[in-house]
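Here is the promised in-class demo. Please do not try to memorize the tokens; focus on the logic of going from shape to residues.
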């Protein structure tokens, strides 16, 4: 079989992490992972499997929620979600920008092994890298395990100029898709074209140049509520709700700005004529966007209760990377250094809240070190999938359930990122954090006493620094489109 040949070569030539990555990239039909339900679903079905709703927002900082220290923007529903479930303090995105972070979430691989390691225009060839048929997604695993699957919102895994059916959500495990196909289109909240499954969905009257028409975030909320209300309740469902708030552009309907007017906030004038069609003033628009998102998540939580399915529904909320908009007024990164496009904590450490009344005790705070690539392993655990695809993750279900003694730990977490100042690599092992810019000395930080990464202690801990530097080389496989060499951005549309 093809898989056997590939894996025997892997054993002979590669280390264990690389072996797992290569085997996972084998043809889906030969793996038996997503094609055979009998092997995917645990034999014991004594316990009803939960619905899973994964809410991913775009560019929300670690400090942008009240439960994480925010004092200006109001997020009562997400704060209640944290009170009723568990709040993780040390959860990490897959990357510091959208595309690779989402690929990590969907495939269970960090950026040293993931099929997509950078945003569409930052590749060696200058062409976007899209998901391929052989890439196994968490949606495929859940669909094979008997889940109904839906994606509503931003996809961003099919950014090629030509329409590629194989990279679309319906070909990657989702029964239903409604939303943006590409990253660039998702920059506009009044864009005129979405997709419903594999067909274009035109929104009459929308004009992104003037920010008029139907606010696409509202369409996603309406669609999510309709999906939950009408889905077959006899079978579990997986809803990936991929909101674009609060990614630029900074624009929101006026009703969401009302509570932030006349507070004496400093005005931040925005460019209204560039690529991003911002509202003229940014601070009120940003706060209004976050509160609108919070309001709508509250509506979803209320609907789950009305439908009688809240107790056996796992809701997870997080952000795809650190903030981009804030200039210290909102303290969007809290005490963390850096923001989007950095591998310092502010670029990759993100809020993470989970609620599942039947399994998660209310009011917990967990410092378990976890990541986006753990979602595949966690999903297999939650959905009782006995044959999970190879991945880089560890299930965080024990930590969500309050079982700290039963929680397995990562040896270390790894990231790489390659845009203007790249390539950059980073590792977190325990309380140590190493950041390495190409051709520069490695930086070492002790997060237990320096969460803001202000004091480079590499010179004081040479052995630890050298050990982590050596792990950088062992943590990745080569990818022709994502080399550890500077790449130039492709500006062609």
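The designed amino acids, position by position:
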């Amino acid at each position: 079989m093809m898989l056997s040949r590939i894996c025997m070569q892997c054993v002979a030539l590669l280390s264990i992490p690389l072996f797992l990555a290569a085997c996972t990239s084998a043809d889906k039909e030969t793996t038996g992972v997503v094609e055979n339900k009998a092997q995917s679903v645990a034999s014991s079905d004594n316990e009803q499997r939960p619905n899973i709703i994964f809410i991913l927002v775009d560019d929300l900082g670690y400090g942008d929620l009240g439960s994480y220290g925010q004092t200006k923007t109001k997020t009562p529903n997400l704060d209640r979600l944290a009170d009723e479930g568990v709040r993780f303090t040390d959860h990490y995105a897959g990357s510091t920008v959208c595309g690779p972070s989402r690929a990590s979430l969907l495939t269970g691989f960090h950026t040293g092994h993931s099929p997509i390691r950078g945003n569409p225009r930052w590749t060696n060839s200058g062409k976007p890298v899209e998901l391929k048929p052989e890439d196994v997604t968490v949606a495929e695993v859940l669909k094979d395990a008997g889940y109904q699957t839906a994606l509503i919102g931003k996809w961003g895994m099919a950014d090629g100029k030509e329409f590629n059916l194989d990279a679309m959500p319906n070909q990657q495990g989702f029964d239903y898709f409604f939303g943006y196909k590409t990253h660039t289109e998702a920059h506009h909240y009044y864009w005129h074209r979405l997709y419903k499954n594999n067909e274009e969905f035109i929104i009459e009257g929308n004009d992104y140049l003037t920010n008029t028409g139907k606010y696409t975030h509202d369409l996603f909320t309406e669609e999510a509520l309709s999906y939950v209300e009408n889905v077959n309740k006899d079978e579990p469902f997986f809803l990936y709700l991929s909101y674009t708030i609060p990614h630029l552009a900074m624009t929101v309907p006026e009703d969401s700005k009302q509570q932030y007017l006349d507070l004496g906030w400093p005005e931040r004038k925005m460019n209204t004529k560039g690529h991003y069609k911002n509202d003229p003033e940014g601070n009120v628009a940003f706060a209004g966007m976050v509160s609108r998102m919070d309001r709508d998540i509250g509506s979803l939580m209320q609907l789950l209760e009305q439908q009688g399915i809240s107790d056996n529904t796992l809701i997870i909320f997080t952000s795809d990377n650190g903030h981009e908009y804030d200039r210290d007024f909102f303290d969007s990164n809290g005490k963390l250094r850096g923001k989007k496009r950095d591998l310092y904590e502010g670029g990759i450490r993100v809020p993470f809240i989970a609620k599942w009344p039947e399994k998660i005790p209310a009011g917990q705070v967990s410092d378990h070190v976890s990541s986006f690539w753990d979602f595949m392993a966690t999903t297999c655990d939650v959905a009782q999938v006995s044959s999970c695809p190879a991945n880089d993750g560890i299930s965080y279900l024990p930590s969500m359930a309050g079982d700290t003694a039963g929680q397995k730990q990562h040896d270390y977490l790894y990231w790489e990122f390659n845009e203007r100042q790249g390539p950059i690599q980073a590792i977190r092992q325990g309380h140590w954090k190493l950041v390495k810019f190409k051709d520069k000395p490695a930086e070492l930080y002790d997060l237990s006493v320096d969460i803001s990464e202000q004091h480079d202690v590499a010179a004081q801990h040479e052995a630890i620094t050298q050990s982590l530097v050596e792990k950088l080389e062992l943590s990745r496989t080569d990818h022709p489109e994502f080399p550890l060499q500077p790449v130039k951005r492709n500006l062609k549309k």
